[in-house]
Amino acid sequence: MALSFAMDIYGCQMNQYDGDRLRTVLTQEGWLETDPSCADIVIMITCSIREKAEQKVLSEIGRYGRIYRTKGRPVLAVVGCMAQNMGLELLRKFPQVKAVVGPRHIGRLPDVLEGVLNHKAVAYLDEDPREMVDLEVAPLVRNNPFKAFVTIAHGCDNFCTYCIVPYVRGRFVSRHPSEILKEVNELVESGVIEVTLLGQNVDSYGKDFDNGYRFSNLLRDVSRIPGLLRVRFTTSHPKDFTDDVIEVMASEPKICPAINLPIQSGSNRILKKMNRGYTVEHYEEIVNHIREAVPEVAITSDLIVGFPGEAEDDFKDTLEMLKRMQFDLVHTAAYSPRNGTPAAVMPDQVPEEEKKRRLAIVNELQDGISLQKNLSLIGNVVEVLIDGYAPKGKSMLQGRTPTDKVVLIPGDEDMLGKLCQVHVTNASHWYLYGEIISSKDFSDVLEVKL
Length: 450
What we know:
Blueprint: E1 4-9, H1 13-28, E2 32-33, E3 41-46, H2 51-71, E4 75-80, H3 81-86, H4 88-93, E5 97-101, H5 109-117, E6 122-124, E7 147-151, E8 153-154, H6 165-169, E9 173-174, H7 177-189, E10 194-198, H8 215-223, E11 230-234, H9 243-251, E12 258-260, H10 268-274, H11 280-293, E13 298-305, H12 312-325, E14 329-334, H13 352-375, E15 381-389, E16 396-400, E17 406-410, E18 419-427, E19 431-440
Parallel strand pairs: 1-2, 1-3, 3-4, 4-5, 5-6, 7-10, 10-11, 12-13, 13-14, 17-19
Antiparallel strand pairs: 8-9, 15-16, 15-18, 16-17, 18-19
Helix pairs in contact: 8-9, 12-13
């Protein structure tokens, strides 16, 4: 009887990528993916970006523990950032946890799972921040047969004062371009027509090479792979974003005109405390250059309110910045202290109620900007790759435009995987709504090959 596994994936797209690669390896080795309630082992790909993310995983571990005490199954493998952050504490505290594997040792996990099922506890934590034991496989077994993520670099050297990522994911290292291009080619052969290149900071790609090969070179090479229709990337860092990336975006039609460029604050004083390495003025120069070179571009950003020491004047600077920048969308958060980061012990921590107040004001302002941006698209015809079912929508599908706008469309499963021309009929600040005018079918290349 085949051994069975289930996958719980939390957090970022890099975790989804790691989960899909683990799913691919185990499926190829004869494991059966099943529901967590009847699996032999549940692999939890975890996130530590905020304490709330860890609390959610701990709650799930506790729930599995109640089942484990009754049935002796499932055992748990905790993988990724939370595993690195909490380490052996997870093994000591939870008898159902039998494996703890840091994000830079994920390649060790498939070889130890059978022993884990026999209650042999293992821990592979990242003691050397530059060591890497990765999975040498493309994510060929995915929930989405026509879209895929590809990590191009691991770790981060920026050490923003609020961020735990460099401590749990280690130092920055670029994957060799030949590995990435081989993987993308394999994905295209399996039916993928859109890839998203991932990194904590994609703009640093290649800076650890001595041959001058940089992110713009990789973008161009990936976009020229036959059969691939769309290329996306995330996340960019303003201090490392360079003109050559803009030039490639402007000249290569497969590269989607959508950029997530986190600003984090509209106050230079706070940006300095965050150790972000740029000023608001520099950031705005970059955005203006992008918009000049790629007029159809959609720019989204990330923003933290209530950072330690953020005074009312700093907050007002952020509001004025949002009015000037007119982002398509902003991912906002109230500052959340993370143990082990410099910001967690900074003086002048902002009270929780004040952080909530500022977050509400920011969200109201940006929601209005996003709504106006989307309302301006009503009546337009946009290209949409139909990639799944709409949340809570009967007979509704969803897809994304090249500018990464989510479009909700009436339709059935026969439309999945099609590239459609869609007439935009309505809009909210999160979604566009539309009707399909015409479509192109790629179903003949969507067979996932194991």
